[in-house]
Design goal:
Low-confidence stretches: 102-111, 118-123
Number of strands: 9
Strand content: 35-45%
CATH architecture of the largest domain: Sandwich
Structural class: alpha+beta
CATH class of the largest domain: Mainly Beta
Shape: rod-shaped
Length: about 160
């Protein structure tokens, strides 16, 4: 129909704060592939470089934007909250965009976006809380030792004065 062949733009959306803060044991990552043409696309997920075979749902077919003539599709991955917070886990959304012509069929990994519970170079809230709590405990222990030493020295001095 004259529309130019276009690779998708892929973005992964973090779980919502409401989902993370509730007592639910799972969170949802959403992969959105947009502005591609034609609609021949596959979306799949990986964890630490290995394909995930269950726990995700991709739209049955891409949706066409009537204004641009291009397509979009979403995929949702549900994972346990513990896996989301594990800094060693990397979740990757990949799209395989297929350009079919009468002469050949080309398949390639077009775009990916990796996301994990704790972003690179950023300490998560739970890690900040642990660090702060540990610092307060250490500070309290040092202060307690200081008070103990002062009282012990006063006790020794008073013993000598009154003896």
């Amino acid at each position: 129909d004259g529309t130019e062949i276009t690779r998708p733009t892929v973005k992964v959306l973090d779980p919502s704060q409401n989902e993370i803060c509730t007592k639910k044991k799972t969170v949802t990552l959403v992969c959105v592939a947009t502005e591609f043409y034609p609609d021949h696309i596959q979306v799949y997920w990986q964890k630490n470089g290995a394909n995930i075979t269950h726990g995700y749902q991709t739209d049955e077919r891409a949706t066409r934007n009537e204004n641009t003539g291009k397509y979009s599709i979403t995929s949702r991955l549900r994972i346990p909250l513990k896996k989301w917070y594990n800094t060693r886990n990397r979740f990757t959304c990949l799209t395989r965009y297929i350009n079919e012509t009468s002469y050949n069929k080309t398949s390639y990994i077009d775009s990916f976006y990796t996301i994990n519970g704790v972003k690179d170079d950023i300490i998560s809230r739970s890690q900040w809380a642990k660090l702060t709590y540990g610092t307060l405990i250490a500070k309290s222990a040092v202060y307690g030792m200081f008070i103990f030493v002062v009282v012990w020295k006063l006790k020794v001095c008073l013993f000598f004065i009154f003896s």
